[in-house]
# Entry
Amino acid sequence: MDILASEIPVIAEIPLIKTGINTLFSNPNDRSALAESFRILTTNMDFVLPSQGGGKAIFCTSTIKGEGKTFISLNFSLAMASLNKKVLLIGADLRNPQLHTYANINKNQLGLSNYLMDTSFDWRSSVKKVFDKQLNHDILFSGAIPPNPAHLLANGNFETLIEEAKSLYDYVIVDLAPTILVTDTLLVAHLADATICAVRASYTDKKLIPFSVELSKTKRLLNMSYVINGVKENGSYGYNYNYGYNYGYGDEES
# Structure
């Protein structure tokens, strides 16, 4: 099954960025092809989200690692913030966090995992403003890698955090673990108002598409749309059959 053959919409195509080119929407006035692609994503997301008032929670995941979910989560949240919306980005991939690599900070600083272990910890105290020109953008990093991520995400504290954050922000965007590798994302997926599933051109195995389609059809991933990452200039994309399923600590994801 091809993505375009499924009933799930593709709401944005993110261009392949050459090495050495800026990959972050750190300037709200950016007019690059990358920035424009994320502006398109913000526009199309408005049609996907439910119309009721209040803050919206948008979860971003993928099927396997390496498809660009963290890259998409971060730039999408920055694009939303550039529209004068108050945005919180949460690093909730507790096994293989990557947000810190874009911010050039220590990945073991206090963050989400600390709150999940102890609700007396004020998560607001760990929120960071990383990008000087994006004043509406906050990040709650994942914190130290815990020994029991699935248990922490399922203990009820994450739901409390999401509800609190939605009362304080226009958009809460959450970077979660890949769905085929661990159960973490599916334990909290019901809290999303919309879900982005990242796939990567010339990388994602075509045979994996039915897996994410089924998660959407059975409502294990709510209100799901695809975002295709790494699309070449000619607009074509394909699916590669050669990659590893391993999902280890410290591996990088672009």
The two ends are 25 Å apart (CA to CA).
